[in-house]
Amino acid sequence: MEALPWKKELSSAVRNLEQLERHLSLTEEEVAFFERRKEERPLPFQVTGYYLSLMTGIPDDPVRKQCIPRAAEFLRFPGETDDPLHEGEYSPLPRLVRRYRDRALIRVNDSCAVYCRHCFRRCFTGGAAGAISRKEVDAIAVYLRNNTEIKEVLLSGGDPLLLDDHRLEGLLAKIRYERPDLLLRLATRTPVTLPSRITGDLVSLLRGYFPLWVVTQFNHPAELTARSSAAMAAFREAGIPCLNQAVLLRGVNDSADVLETLFRGLALQGIKPYYLFQGDLAEGTGHFRVPLRVGWSIIEELRLRLSGLALPVYAVDLPGGGGKIRLEKDHLIKETEDCYVFRNIEGKEYTYPKED
Ligand SMILES: *Cc1c(COP(=O)(O)O)cnc(C)c1O
Ligand code: SF4
Description:
Layout: H1 5-11, H2 17-21, H3 28-36, H4 49-52, H5 62-67, E1 96-100, E2 103-107, H6 134-146, E3 152-156, H7 165-178, E4 183-187, H8 190-193, H9 200-207, E5 212-216, H10 226-237, E6 242-247, H11 256-268, E7 272-277, H12 292-305, E8 313-318, E9 323-326, E10 332-335, E11 339-343, E12 349-353
Parallel strand pairs: 2-3, 3-4, 4-5, 5-6, 6-7, 7-8
Antiparallel strand pairs: 1-2, 8-9, 10-11, 11-12
Helix pairs in contact: 6-7
Bound molecules: pyridoxal-5'-phosphate (PLP) and iron/sulfur cluster (SF4).
Pyridoxal-5'-phosphate binds at residues 97, 99-100, 103, 105, 154, 324.
C-alpha cells in the first residue's frame, strides 16, 4: 500500500547537520550545537520540509529560532531543571499526570514532527518512552473508571497525532467506552509543523469522539499559511472546537505588534487564543525566556488593542510543581531583589526568577 503523504513527509524530515546544510547556511552558534551534541544529550533535532519552507534566509527568522538549535541550549541557568513542573510527583501511573482533581494528562507519545527548541516537556519529549502500549491504555482506562471526579482528559506528549489513525482510534475508543461523559482535549502542533497530518480520515475519526477539543501552538504570524489554515478549517467544518496555546519567546514573538497580528489572525480563523505561556524553567531554554516585567507590559498593551475573543490569558506553570496560574497581579504576593513570589491556587507560595 502507498504510504500516506504525511508519513512520507515525516520520513524525509531533516535530522542531521549534513541534511540541514543543504537547506540553509548555518551560523557558528548553530553549527556549535551539532558539535556539542555528540557528547551531551539535548532534545533531538528534527524539522519537516514544510516548516523549513516557512523560513526566510535571515538568522533572526522567527521560524528558524523555533526549530534550528543553537549552542545556547547547553547553558544552564539557576533554577532550571529537567522536570520544572515536578510532573513525576503527580503521576499515579507512568503516562498519567494528575496535577488537578478534575483533569488528567496522558503522555500518549514522545515524538513530534518538529522538536521545538523551546520545548518545556523536554525531559519526556524525544526520549525513550515511545508510544503508549495497549497495556498502558488499559491501565489508564481502569484508573479513569475508578476516578470519576476526573472530568477532562488531555491527550498530550510529545505529539499524539504522530500515532497513526488506527492506534489513535484504539486509545480514544477505550477511553470513551469507560467514560462517555469525559471532555477530551487533544494537544498537537501538527497543524503548524506538518499540516498534511490533518487528513479527511483523521478529522472524521476525531469528530466521532465529540466532545473533543483540539489545542495547537501557533507562536508567530509567519506560521499562519494557506496550508495551516486549510488544516484548521477542516477541524472547524467538522464542528471540532480549536484553541491555541502560544509560548512567549524572546526574539520570536516578544512584541505587542507581532502578538496582536498572531491573535487577530487566529481569531479570524475561528481559533480562540487560550493561553500565552511565560517560559518554564526547563533546562536549555533560558535564551528564550522573556523577563516577567516585559511579559506584563506586552499583555497590558494587548489588553488595550484586542477584544476578549482574541486576547489569551497570560499564564505560567509555577516552578516546583505549583501548577498553572494566571499572571494577573492578584497572585503576586511580593517581589524580592531577584524573584517574584506568587500564591498558587491552593494558597501555597512559589517563586519565579526575575532574570533581567
Ligand atoms: C496544563 C495542564 C492541565 C490543564 O490546565 P488548564 O488550565 O485547564 O488548561 C491539566 N493537567 C496538567 C498536568 C497540565 O499541565
Ligand atoms: S510539539 Fe510540543 S511537545 Fe513537541 S517539541 Fe514542540 S513544544 Fe515540545
